[in-house]
Amino acid sequence: MLLLLGGRVLDPSTGRDETADVVVEAGRIVRVGPGAAGEFAGREQVERIDCSGKWVVPGFIDLHVHLREPGHEYKEDLASGLAAAAAGGFTTVCPMANTRPCNDNRAITEMMMSGAKAVGRGVRLLPFGAMTKGLAGEELAEMGDMRKAGAIGVSDDGRCLMNAAVMRRALEYASTFDLLVSQHAEDHHMTEGAQMNEGELSTRLGLRGWPREAEDIIVARDLILVERTRARYHVAHISSMGAVRLIREAKSRGLRVSAEVTPHHLTMTEQALINYDTHCKVNPPLRTEEDRAALIAALADGTIDCIATDHAPHSTMEKDCEFSAASVGINGLETAIASTLALVRAGQLSPLRWVESLSTSPAKLVPDLDAGSLREGSRADITVVDPERRWTVTREALRSKSFNTPLLNHEVTGGIHRTIAGGAVIYEAPRS
Amino acid sequence: METFPHRHILGIEGLSRADIEHVLDTSNAFLEVSRRPVRKVPTLRGKTVINLFYENSTRTRTSFELAGKRMSADVINISVASSSVSKGETLYDTCKTLEAMHPDVIVMRHASSGAPHFVARNVRCSVINAGDGMHEHPTQALLDAFTIRRARGTLEGLTVAIVGDVAHSRVARSNALLLKQFGCTVRFVGPDTLVPPELAGYGVELHHEVEAGVRDADVVMVLRVQTERLKGALLSSLGEYSRTFGINRRRLALAKPGALVMHPGPMNRGVEIEPDVADGATSAVLDQVEAGVAIRMALLYLLAGDSGEA
């Protein structure tokens, strides 16, 4: 038995926001409420966690990570990636399919699932399978088989599915298996050689631009296709205000669409690139303050459903080089909470909505997932957030194998006190 | 002489008007050195300059090499056939290797914008940017300013039309940054594909009609236009470019009488510039080349010259 005592319990699934206890037994939440632990006071073999000053929330779910196994274990592997997830407060993560070999068939999906189990970090792995074979954008991958092996969605992430005819069929076929279709929206013809957001700054820095329109055009096209299918369509790492407008309009018409936004697109702009900092090179690129404001507003009003990290670990080799040679991506699992809490402190996001966008909302995008809620009877995936904890993002502090983050060596506010998955504590903050 | 407050020359951005004037004034003295019968001074004896060129450039590399040699520095040229896909030594390792040889200055050209900034962060010696991607080419802008100032007596208040592939031009960027510091009116002239609206951020005028672009200009600076722009659907043909934007006598006549014609080279005669303009009475193309050596001598002196220590 585990007693979480006196924390601020934030549960978007019920709207609860009050100081309360949470009681966990046999992997389930058995009681929630002010003083709820009292009736269990006499029990033996009870672990008590003082949660005063902390936020007790449903375990976080990250719909978009790259854990690099199989194939790029020098950047990250399941063990380090899942440890990083636990340290970041995530109890469920969804790795993308662009491993090597890529996850475009049942064997790889099974390998990931059993690998995660063997690693035993307690974090649930719900992979995305590839939409097309070899992520090549031509032939459909065996979505049904991958679904049986544990995949919850399909995506060619890293690449956009450019061919509209194939995209239409992918949406239709994925509907057969009720898989979420996550699109990396980028018209590759418009972004050849692109290094950063297109605009005055890219002109000034002499870096080829990645225009917003390359994202908007694909989202617009996909929404037209979605309308004639039963598909559940999801925009990965939305970055442009135009795409936000399109999603808002589609939702107003009742289309089954959703979107995720990364912590870096919510908290940074292209201005971070002024000194050619490769840690800020990411795809889609960091955009303008206007886009950032639109993303925050859309996350607050629910147009954008959730926050996903797009955790993209890379080795020093791939970042400590000239800008055009650097790989794209930011290491995000362990800093997502600190960086997005800044929006809560700034009053741009309510605490409940913040929690919802990291747990309840993404949970809803996975059918029948027992997560994202602190209701009595739910699986005990619980994160205890310490909103005041100040810590420095150092190589040593990160569980990830890589440390390619613009926050490296910066002090941040907000950390994880405990991460609990299926009733077991899988992460405990270092004593400071 | 007052000391020069920079260790590197990575771009015109970051140089003040006083810094630029300091370089131009210093160059005056070195122009004279190149016109002597014995074109060598001992100023940089015992200093080492490495020309690290990741892009082919006969003219800029030769200019830097001569500049170093006329100053008595030891000059080493390294040409690296580079392509981002070829798995050679990383730029980081190259920096560290060269640094271990104790150079005083690394002169660097690279196809990746910001590459000299990366090198500057990783070495203790001075770095001069000899052109990085589409970003900057500060020594070109300095030699252009030097050429204009000698021809016109001042830079102040001039109207300079920069015609051609501005979007991909580090020369245009560095020139705009420099000329704006002297109150010049700078015009970028070319088709919309090569003169996109974002360029207005430089505080320049954008012109998509060549006649309006060069009208009453004091200087017409012509940029090289390359066939590779056909690939990205930025141009239809060099022929049509020449017909719509090429600088010929008729168009030059719209500029101020005696307007200076400049080109950073190498020229595509008959494409962006007609031969009779390139070789015309007001062409400053070869003055630019001469100025280039003087500017580079001045920069090597300012960065590597002994300022008191043994």
Overview of this structure, please?
- The complex is a heterodimer of chains A (432) and B (310).
- Chain A is an alpha/beta fold and 432 residues long.
- Chain A folds into 2 domains: 2-56 and 377-428, Urease, subunit C, domain 1 (Roll), CATH 2.30.40; 59-364, Metal-dependent hydrolases (TIM Barrel, Alpha-Beta Barrel).
- Chain A has 13 helices and 19 strands.
- Chain A has helices at 78-87, 106-119, 143-149, 164-176, 200-205, 212-226, 241-252, 263-267, 289-300, 316-319, 336-345, 351-358, 360-364; strands at 2-11, 16-25, 28-33, 47-50, 55-58, 60-65, 90-95, 124-125, 128-129, 153-154, 180-183, 196-197, 209-210, 232-235, 257-261, 306-307, 382-392, 411-421, 424-428.
- In chain A, strands 1, 2, 3, 4, 5, 17, 18 and 19 form an 8-stranded mixed β-sheet that branches. A 6-stranded parallel β-sheet of chain A has the order 9-10-11-14-15-16.
- In chain A, strand 7, helix 2 (106-119) and strand 8 (124-125) form a beta-alpha-beta unit.
- Chain A starts with a strand and ends with a strand.
- The model of chain A has no long low-confidence stretch (mean pLDDT 97).
- Chain B is an alpha/beta fold and 310 residues long.
- Chain B has 2 domains: 17-136 and 291-304, Aspartate/ornithine carbamoyltransferase (Rossmann fold); 138-288, Rossmann fold (3-Layer(aba) Sandwich), CATH 3.40.50.
- In chain B, 37% of the residues lie in helices and 15% in strands.
- Chain B has 11 helices and 9 strands.
- In chain B, the strands form 2 sheets. Chain B has a 5-stranded parallel β-sheet. A 4-stranded parallel β-sheet of chain B has the order 2-1-3-4, sandwiched between helices.
- In chain B, strand 3 (105-110), helix 4 and strand 4 form a beta-alpha-beta unit.
- In chain B, helix 2 crosses helix 11 (285-304) and helix 3 crosses helix 4 (115-122).
- Chain B is globular.
- The two termini of chain B are 18 Å apart.
- The interface between A and B is medium-sized, with 22 and 28 residues.
